[in-house]
Amino acid sequence: MMPGAVPCVLARLFGLWLMLAVSAAHAGEDTIKIGILHSLSGTMAISESVLKDTVLMLIADQNKKGGLLGRRLEPVVVDAASDWDVFAKKARQLISNDKVAVVFGCWTSASRKSVLPIFEELNGLLFYPVQYEGEESSRNIFYTGAAPNQQAIPAVRYLISNEGGKVRRWVLLGTDYVYPRTINRILSAYLAAEGVSPDDIMTIYTPFGHYEWREIVGRIKAFGSEGKKTAVISTVNGDANTYLYSELAAQQVDANAVPVMAFSFGERELLGADIAPVGHLAAWNYFQSIKSAENDAFVRMWADFNKQRDKTTNDPMEATFIGFRMWAQAVVQAGTTDIDAVRQAMYGQRINAPSGFEVAMNTNHHLSKPVMIGKINSSGTFNVIWRSINPVRADAWSKYIPDSANRTADWTFPWVCGGCIEPTFKEW
C-alpha cells in the first residue's frame, strides 16, 4: 500500500459513515410523528382502545393520500393504563422524547387535567375527543367532544318537555371524579332555575369499575315510585356501565317509567352489555344510525380498516375523526407542523362531519356541532328521536356556575385567554 493510502481510506470510510448518519437523520425527519395517548388496559380500556384504532385508521388513510407536506405520518402509541399519573408521564415522553407533532388522546377529565400542565409547559398540542364538564379552555388543547350546553343541558331540557315525558324528579348518577361532579353542579343549578325542589334531586357517586349495583338500583326504583315522573342522568364511565345496565334489567326497571339518559354510554359500550337496555336514552353529537353520505363513508372506512370484523362507530370516534381532519387541514394551510402556526390555522376550520352537519372550530378551542338524543332499540343500536336544527356553539364556561358566568374563552386578539372577564389587551 502506498504511503498515505491508509489515511485516505480512513477518510473515505469516515465520509461514507457521515453520509449514512446524515441520511438516517433525514429519514427520521421525513416522517411526522403522531402521538396516541389512551388507556389500552384497565377500567377505561372498554371505551378508549377503539379511539387508538381510529387514529391508526386515519393515519393509514392519510398516508394513502401521500401523507402531509410530502411526509408520511408515523403513529407513536402508548398505554396510559387508566392511571392519571401514567397519563402525565406518557404525555411528557411523547412530547419531549418522541418529538410528536400532535397528540390525540385522553377520555376522562381526570386524565386530561393530569396532562394539561405538561402540554402547556412543553407547548404540545392535544386533541381531546370526549364530552366533558367545560370550565376550561387551554391554549394547547382543542376540545372536539361536547361541552355541557351541547349535551347535558339539552338532554335535561328534552326530558322536562312534553315530548321527553315531563320529568319532574331526578337521579344524578355518576362515577366519582371531576366530570360527573361538575356536570351535576351545573345541572342542579339549571334544575333549580326551572323550579325543581332539592327534595326532587338525588345524587349518587360510585368508584371507577363499580360492579355491585343492587342497592343503588333499588334506591333509584324507590325514589321513582313516589308519584312524580323520574329520570336518571348517568355520567357513569367505563366498564361500570355494563354492570349498571345488567342490574337495571335484573330489577326490571322500565325505561318508560324511569328512563336513564346516559352521557358516557354509546354504541361501543353496548357491545359489552349482556342485554340491550331497550328504551333507555343517550345524548351525544353523533350516532352510527345517522343517514348521511359522510356517515356512510365513515362507517365504511372503519369496517374496511377492520376487514369487516367491526362495523360499530360512536361519538368519540367521530370527534376523533373531526379533530384529525381539522388538524391535517391546518397543517396544510400553515405549511408546517409548527405548533404555534398550526394552532393559529385551526381557527375557523370546517368539515362536513359524519353527523350530517358542517362543524366548525371556534376561537375558544371548542366546536360548533349538533346535539342529538337516541333511544336504544332491540338490535343494540340507537334510534335518533331528537336533534337540534342547527349546530350549537360550545360554551367553555357555564352560565349556571356563578364564578364562570361572565368568563370568556377566546384565543384571538384582544382577548388571548382561556377564561378571563375582560380583554388581555385593553389598549390598541
Structure description:
- The structure is a single chain.
- The strands form four sheets. The chain has a seven-stranded mixed sheet with strand order 7-6-8-9-10-14-15, sandwiched between helices. Strands 2-1-3-4-5 form a five-stranded parallel sheet, with helices on both faces. A four-stranded antiparallel sheet has the order 11-12-13-16, covered by helices on one side.
- β11 and β12 (358-361) form a beta hairpin.
- It is 39% helix and 19% strand.
- Residues 6-11 and 16-28 have low confidence and may be disordered.
- The chain is of the alpha/beta class and 428 residues long.
- It has twelve helices and 18 strands.
- The radius of gyration is 24 Å and the shape is globular.
